[in-house]
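Exercise 7. Predict the structure of Cytidine deaminase from Ectopseudomonas oleovorans.
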Amino acid sequence: MSTNLPAHLAALLPQAVAAAERAYCPHSEFPVGAALLTAEGEVIHGCNVENISYGLTNCAERSALFAAISRGLPPRSFTAMAIHAPGVPLISPCGACRQVLLELMAPDATIVCSGSEPGRTRTWTLAELLPGAFDDF
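Solution. The predicted structure, encoded as C-alpha cells:
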C-alpha cells in the first residue's frame, strides 16, 4: 500500500470518488468510480451502471474507457486510472476490466485503487494486474 503517491495519481483519486457518487447501482448498492487520465492531462470519469440482469452491468473502468474512445480519443493514449469503491477497504479491477484496461490503455499505464479506508491505496502496472495476458496489439 502506498500513501506517498505521485501528484498526478493523488489528484486522480478525488475524481474517482466523485465519479462513484454518480454510480447507478440499485441492485448491489456497490458504487464504483473511475478517473481516466489522458496523455494530454484530461480526466474522463466513469461509474458502474447496473442492470437487474448483472451480466448487462458495465463497470466504472470500462465506462471511462468506452467514453474516451467514443469521444474519438485514440486507444493506448491513456496513462493512468484511479478507481474508488467506498463499500470495501480496497478495490481492484475485475478480470474483464483488466483485459480491457490492458488493450485500451498505454502499456506502461498505472492503476491506483482506493476504498473505504482513508489513505489506503494500492498501485499496479497493467502487467502486474494481468500477467500472461492476451496482448497482441
